[in-house]
Amino acid sequence: MNRSSLLIIIVVIIVAGGVVWFDHRHTAAPASEAAAAKPAEEEGPKITRDADGNIVISMSDEAQGDMGIKVEKPAPTQIALEVKGFGRVADPTLLEALISDVATTQAAFTASGNELTRLQVLQGQGNASVRAVQAAQATAVKDRLAVQVAQNHLALAWGQAVADLPDLPAFIQALTSREAVLIRVDLPASEVLSSLPDAARITNLAGRSAEASLLGPAATVDPQLQGHGYVFLIKPNTAQFAPGEAVTAYLKLKGEPVKGVTVPREAVVRTEGAGWIYVLLPTSDGFTRVEIPLDHPLDSGYFVAKGVTPDNYIVITGAQQLLSTELKGQGATSE
Q: Which residues are paired to 289 by β-bridges?
C-alpha cells in the first residue's frame, strides 16, 4: 500500500470517530438534562407549618389529581336545638309481663263486674239472695283493686304515658316483633329541661339513627346519672334497633335552630382518638387538618356547627391519603 492510500484511510477513520463522538455528546446531553430535571418534576408533597403551628400539606394540581383528591363545599344545614342523653332499648319481656298483668286483671274485673250486674238484676226479680250479691260485690271490688295495682306497677316502671296507651296488647305485640322499640333516655343531673322535648334523634354505636316520638317522662330517676328520664317510641323500627342496645339520644328542644354544615362521612378520617377533615387553604394550594366533633351524626354525614363554614372547600375524596402523607412526613403511620 502506498503512502497516499494510507493517509486517506487514516483521515477517514478520524472523521468517522469525530462524528460518533459528536453524536454521543448531543444525544447524551439531553438525557442527562432530563435526569437532572426529573427530581424537580416528580417532587412530592411539601409538609410545613403555618403561623399557628398547624401542619400544611402543599402539592401541585397535578399531584392532587394523581392522588385522587377531590374537594367541595359542605352543604349548609340547620338542626333543632338539642341536648344529649344516653339510653337503652327496652327489653319487651319485662314490659310484656307488666302489660299481661294489666290485661289479666282487667279481664277478671270485667267478668266479676258482669256477674255482679247479673245478680243485681236477679235480686230485683227476687231470684238472688243478698248474700250472693254481697259476695259478687266483694269479688268485683277485689278485681278492680288488682287492676289498679297492675296499672300502678306499669306506670311506676315506664311512666303514666305508657300505662295509659289505649291498646296495650297491640302495643306489646309491636315491641316483641321489633316493629317498634321503646327507649328510655336519661340526662345528666346538670341538664334540667324547662319543658318536655318535642322528639329525639336516636343513634347506636354502628351509626344508624332514627327519629323517635316522645311518650312522656320516666317515672323514676336513673341511679347513676341522677337526671331526668324520658320514654320514647320508634315506630317503625327502620334502623333495626335491638333490645338491650345502648344508644345516644339528642333530645330536640324548643327554640331557634342551630346553623352549621353537613360534612360527608367519606371526608372524615380518624386519628388521635378524634375525627378530622382536611380543608383547602383559601390563599394557597395547601391542605390543613381540622378536628370536628362527631356527636351529631346525620344520615348523610355529620352536623358541624363550628370550625367549618359553607365557604370552605373540604376534601371529600383522598382524605385518608393526605393523612398517610402527613403522618409519614412526621415519621409515623396512620391508624
A: 278
Tell me how crowded residue 252 is: count the other CB atoms within 10 A of its CB: 20
* Separation CA 172–CA 233 (nearest Å): 12
pLDDT greater than 60 at residue 178: yes
Lowest mean pLDDT across 37-41, 64-68, 177-181: 37-41
Beta bridge partners of 76: 261
Residues 136 and 285 in one domain: no
CA distance 88 to 182: 9
- In contact, 220 and 232? CB cutoff 8 Å: no
- Up-side HSE of residue 174: CA atoms within 13 Å toward CB? 14
Percent of the chain with pLDDT over 90: 47
State CA 217 to chain mean position distance.
25
Same domain, 245 and 289: no
| pTM reported for the whole predicted model | 0.61
Those residues with Cβ within 8 angstroms of residue 269's Cβ, 6 or more apart along the chain or in another chain: 275, 276, 277, 278, 319, 320, 322, 323, 334
Buried b (16+ CB within 10 A) or exposed e, 132-155: ebeebbebbeebbebbeebbeebb
Give the C-alpha separation, 142 to 146, whole Å.
6
239 is in which domain, residue-wise? 82-90+178-257
The 8-class DSSP code of residue 35 comes to: H
What CATH number is given to the structural domain containing 269?
2.40.420
159 shares its domain with 200: no
Contacts of 113 (CB under 8 A, 6+ apart): 140, 143, 144
Q: CB within 8 A of 243, min separation 6: which ones?
A: 89, 90, 91, 92, 93, 178, 181
**Strand-strand pairing, 75-79 and 82-89:** unpaired
Q: What angle do CA 273, 276, 280 make, to 5 degrees?
A: 160
Convert the pLDDT of each residue in 300-330 to its tens digit.
Answer: 889 999 889 999 999 999 999 999 988 887 7
> What's the structural domain count of the chain?
3
The C-alpha cell that represents 187 in the structure block: 340526662
The Cα–Cα gap between 300 and 266 comes to 10
